Amino acid sequence: MHQTIDPAILYWGSAVIIISTRNPDGTTNLAPMSSTWWLGQRCMLGLAAESQTTFNLRRTKQCVLNLPSDTMISKVNALAKMTGRQDMSPFKTAAGYRYVKDKFKVVQLTPMSSEMVQPSRILESPVQMEAEVAAVNEMNRDEEGREGSFLGLEVKVLRIPAEENILQVGEPNKVNADRWRPLMHVFQHLYGLSARLQPSRLAEIDEEKYR
Ligand SMILES: Cc1cc2nc3c(=O)[nH]c(=O)nc-3n(C[C@H](O)[C@H](O)[C@H](O)COP(=O)(O)O)c2cc1C
Questions:
Q1: How far is the CA of 209 from the centre of ligand 1 (A)?
Q2: Are 21 and 54 in contact (CB under 8 A)?
């Protein structure tokens, strides 16, 4: 039996990233997010218009998409309910958010210079994607009073430093899917992945054909 439901938010499950952006004073802001998906060398980011990250992205057009492994769950939890924006919304105030200027320091993550963009990357993240904004789409335009409250940002990945131990031996451009353990966000809960179920038929197509 199916029942028609109306969840407040559709968090069916996606990987968490920690996004770095550059503040107006030149420091780097960090924010956990999970409304992301990948296609080719592009990533779509779903972000609330009000966050400091969104302000920074619209102004500078640059970011680093730091992927936490499932072992970094305590860092993601530590970053939750923080904002780099001093004048936060009444919603965030009521929800117990606090303003934190230096999130690297407060959650004990290590900043590392990027090569192709200005915001710092996170040393502890096994994958750090330097990226630039290619397009901005204002969402909810059909909903009165909520127009533009969320943005869908298309970013172009420019460079991908990745830890050697998640790569296939002898194949420097291939990630070993058994070794990469993303942290998943499902209806406000954090999960790891189970072991591989069975071979995928799509894998009969050489990955390089998608380049
Ligand atoms: C696991 C997790 C996933 C989140 N996913 C998103 C998301 O996809 N989009 C978004 O706008 N905020 C998301 N948030 C909330 C932001 O982290 C939050 O708005 C934060 O205050 C943004 O920081 P900033 O204001 O410094 O940019 C998520 C938070 C957590 C902990």
A1: 34
A2: no
